[in-house]
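Many introductory courses stop at the sequence. We go one step further.
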Amino acid sequence: MEQLIRLTIRGISLSQIQSGIYVLLLEEEESGKIKLPIIIESLQAQSISSALGKRDPSRSFTHDLFLSVSEIFRIKLKSVVIYKLVNGIFFSYILFYKEGDQKTEHKIDSKTSDAVALAVRFQAPIYTTKEIFDKAGIYFENGFPIEIENKEDNEDTEECIENYSIPLFFNKEKTQQELEKMTDKDLNALLNHAVINECYELAARIKKELDRRE
């Protein structure tokens, strides 16, 4: 079984340019050097923020109802795992078990934003795989995002981080025609840069193009 990497929630950002665009920023818990940006919908962003204590506590979400039902029937959430990335979309599953029977686990597929909203409420850990970090993770050194060369072929993260170059320019003026000519891999890389540079309008257009290719 592939070793999982534990994540923590770094924050949620709201675009000041494009209405309704939010970015959930997760990071590697151990070092904090690798961050994973995930574009999420408004409702899920509000739900996660509410569970983190950053919104009106009087407002209730479906995730709160699920928590109440789980408490009554003694259902525990063991963990959330972000296990796959296809065309800019993250796939996750949730592991549940019945209180007193940890040996019997139940795995349920879930939208990543919903899974994270539940993990916060259940105080359960969030994990991902090294493959996901290789595809979509943004590496940081001394607080700055860095480019990792051949990171998919390098199994040693520390050695990989030593070989980097800090991007000096970021071109946010990309036409639809230019996006259509780019490969999925390049679009995912551009999506990472758009998010980290808070170019959420571009990020939304990139995600739309990735979704179109499904």
